[in-house]
Amino acid sequence: MDRENVQRRADLVARAARSFEIMFGEAPAIFAYAPGRVNLIGEHTDYNDGFVLPCAIDYGTVVAIGPAASDQLCAVASDYGDDRDAFDPNAIFVSQKTEWKNHVRGIAASLAARTGMIQGANLAIAGNVPQGAGLSSSASMGVALAKALVEHQQITGLSATDLALIAQQSENAYVGTACGIMDQLVSAKAEAGAALLIDCRTLDTMPVYMPEDLIMLVIHSGIERQLADSPFNQRRAECEQAAKYYDVPTLRHLTEDRLIADRGELDDVVFRRAQHVVTEIARTEIAANILSNGDIAKLSELMRQSHLSLRDDFEVTMPAIDDLVAMIGKHLGSRGGVRMTGGGFGGCVVALVPKDQVQPVMDPVTANYDPPDGRPVRIFQCLPSSGARII
Ligand code: NG1
Description:
With about 400 residues, this protein is an alpha+beta fold. It has helices at about 5-25, 100-115, 135-150, 160-175, 180-190, 230-245, 255-260, 270-290, 295-310, 320-330, 360-370, and strands spanning about 30-40, 50-65, 75, 85, 120-125, 195-200, 205-210, 215-220, 335-340, 350-355, 380, 390. It has two domains: about 5-210, Ribosomal Protein S5, domain 2 (2-Layer Sandwich); about 210-380, GHMP kinase, C-terminal domain (Alpha-Beta Plaits, 2-Layer Sandwich). The chain contains eleven helices and twelve strands. Strands 1, 2, 3, 4, 5, 6, 7 and 12 form an eight-stranded mixed sheet that branches. It has a four-stranded antiparallel sheet with strand order 9-10-8-11. It starts with 5 loop residues before the first helix and ends with a strand.
C-alpha cells in the first residue's frame, strides 16, 4: 500500500509542469518521479560488499519531459530559478560549473553509452528532497532523469537495476562522486511500504515490509558534515587493510569467528574497523528478518548496537550526535529504534517511531537539543515509498 504524502508530490508535479510550460510553451508529455532515501541499518558495509537496508522516502524529484523541435536536450531547473541548459546529448560530456547541469548531462552521456544515440527532448526538474541532509537528493534526481528519458524515448530492455547503474555511472564518471550503488538502487527499485535489503556483492534485493504504524524520523544534527573525504577514505583503506590481513577479497567474506580467532598481531584500530563491518553486516541481515515481523524491541536493540559500534569501533559519530541518539533512545525505549545514519562525521540521525510517539519524540529534541554549530535542528517525517515510476 502506498502511504505517501500525496499532496506534497502533487505540488512537485505542478511546479515541474509550470516550469516546463513557461520555458517550452506547451504541456509536458510525461512525468517521471524518483524518491530520496534514508539508510535504516548497514552503515559502511556497502563498500565492503555487505548488506544495507535503506528505505525510499516520500520526498523526491519530478522530471517533466516532452518532445523537442531539435536534436538538443533542453532542461530547466525549477529549484534554481528556472535556470536552463541546452546541449547535444550525443556529444562528448563537457563539465559545467553548475552541479545540476552535470547531473543532466551525465545521465544523458551514461544512457547514450549504454543504449546508443539518444534523441533531443525538453525537460523540467523539480525536487523536494532536503539537500545536505543525507537523504540522497542527487540519486533521486539522477534516477528520475534516467526514468524520464528511457520512458519518453521508448528505450526497452532496461531493468530498474540498469537505471540505477546508469545513474551511478553518471555520478562516478561525470558529477565526480565516488558513490556506491545503494542510493540509486533503492531509488529505482523500492516497493511501497517497504525498506529494501540490498546485497551489495550481487545487487540482489528483497523488499522488507514495514509495520504500518512506524514513521521514519530523520533528524539533522545541525552539524554540516565536514569535508569528510579524508576520514571517509581512511576508513575505506583500513577496511581494505583488514581484508588483506585476513586474506579475504572483502570483509563480507570474514566470519565473526575468524575475526577473533585469527586476530594475531593485527593493529587494534584496524581490528575494530573490521569488527564494526563484520558485526554490522550480521545485524543488517537480522534486522531485515525481524522488521517485517514487527519485532520492534529487537530492532531497537540492533539499531542501538549499530550506533555503539559506529561510535566505538568505527569512530565516525560525534559527541553531539551521540547525545541526540541517547536523548531519543531514552524516550523511546524498546518502542522504536534510533541511530546515526549515513557516513558520519556530522549529518543525521534516523529514528523508527510509532505514530503516537512522533510528537513526544520531536518536542524534547526541539526544546533541549543544542546544535553545536548553532544551526537550527531540522526534523523530517518520512514514510516508506515506492521507487522510480511514471506518474
Ligand atoms: P552518505 O553519508 O549518506 O552520503 C556515505 C556513502 C555510502 C555509504 C555510507 C556509509 C557516498 C556518496 N555515500 O553515505 O555509500 O558508504 O556513507 O554507510 O559516498
